[in-house]
Amino acid sequence: MRKVEEAIVVVTRPDREKVEVILKKTGMPIGELKCSLCGEPITDLSRIRAIFPYHSALICCDKFECLVACRNKLISESAPK
Amino acid sequence: MSDLGELLKNFFEQFYWEIIFLILFSLVGGVYLFGRTKIRRFLFRRKIAPKIQEIVSIYEKEVLPDYVEIKPKIIVAQKTQELPNDLPFGYIFVPEGQEELVWNTLIAYIPICCSLRKIKLLFDESLRKSLFDLLSYELGLKLNQENLAVAYRDHGLKTYKEDYKVMESLYQDKKLTIVILLEASTRLRKSGGAHISASDVEEFSTLVRKIAQIDAIVIRVGKSPVRVEEIVASGRGVVFLARGKNIEKAIRLSNRLEANGYIKLSPAELGLPNPEQGIWYFTYPKVNEVPFMRVWLKPAINSGSTK
Description:
The structure holds two protein chains of two kinds. Chain A is of the alpha+beta class. Chain A has helices spanning about 15-25, 65-75, and strands at about 5-10, 50, 60. Chain A has one domain (about 15-75). Helices cover about 25% and strands about 15% of the residues of chain A. By secondary structure, chain B is α+β, with helices and mostly antiparallel strands. Chain B has two domains: about 40-190, no CATH class; about 215-305, Alba-like domain (Translation Initiation Factor IF3, 2-Layer Sandwich), CATH 3.30.110. Chain B has eleven helices and seven strands. Chain B has helices spanning about 1-15, 15-65, 100-115, 125-140, 145-160, 160-170, 175-190, 200-215, 230-235, 245-260, 265-270; strands at about 70-75, 90-95, 215-220, 235-245, 260-265, 275-280, 290-300. The interface between A and B is large, with 41 and 56 residues. β2 (about 50) of chain A pairs antiparallel with β2 (about 90-95) of chain B, so a sheet runs across the interface.
C-alpha cells in the first residue's frame, strides 16, 4: 500500500515579527530582506510572497519571474524533500 | 441602610440612560481591545482557508485526477506562536486586504507541494519544468484565473517550446496520468528507492517524448459504452485502460478492434509491454489498489502513425 505523505504549507500574514522568526528557524541571518531570485530588497513586506526552507531559505517576491524561478529551484534534483 | 437604598434608587433613576450607554460602551471597548486579534484571525481564516481548500480540491480532482502522491496540509497561522516548530515545506504570505494576490502564488506552488515530489526526478530538467508549467496553466484555467494561467503557458512556450508541447499533447490525450505518471511510479517502486542515474532520466525522458508522438486517444473502459465503430471511423490509435472487473471488457473490445483491422503496437515500438497488466494504486478518495490492464492498438494500414 502506498503511503500518502503530507506536505505542510503555512499560510500567514507578512508581519515583520513572523518573517524574522521564520528566517531564524531556517538559519538565515535576518539582515536586509531581499528576494533570493532577483536580489531586490523587500523593505515593503507586502511584496514578500513565500519563504521555502531550501538549503537555508529561499525568499520570493511578487514578480512572476521570481515565482517561476523559485518553483524551478524547488523542483530541481537537489531540492530537499 | 434604607437611606442608602433610596439614594442608589434615585441615582439609577436619574442617570438611567447614561448608565446603559456606559455599560454598552465598556462592552464594545472590551470586545475591541481584547477581541480584535481574534476577530482579525477569524476573518483571515475565513477568507483564506476555504480558498486554499478549494484550490487543492480542484487540483486533486480536476487537474491531476488518479495521481495524488501527497496531500498538502495547510496551516493558517495568524499569530507568530501558531507557526509550527518543525520546518514545513514552505510559508506563503498573504498581505492584509490584498487576498486576491495569493492566487498567483498558489497557482505556482500548489502543484509542486501536492504531487510528483518523487517521480518528477525521472524527468529531465526541460520536461520537468514544462510539466509544472502545464499543471499551473491547467490549475489557473480551472480556477477561472485565465490571465495568470496564460502566463505559465507563455513561459513554457517561450523557454522550452518543444517539451511544453510534448506535455500539452500528453495531457490533452489523457496519457499523462494513465501512461506517463503511472510508468514513472512503477519504475520508482521497482528501483526500491535506489539512486536514479542520469541514464535512467535520459531513457525515461526519451520514452515520454516518444509516447507523445504516438497518435492515440486514451479510453477508460468502465460503465460508459465504448463504440468500436466510432474508433475505427476516427482512424486514430487507441489506448484502453481498464481496472478491476473491467479488464475482461477491455480484452473483448481489443479483440473486436483487432477483428476490424487494428493491431497491437509492438513493445519495441512502444517502449512498454503491450498489453500491460499490473496494480493501480489509488490514494483518492481512499488508499486502495486494484489490478489494471493497458493495451495500445493502432490501425494496421496506418502502422507508422505519429502526430
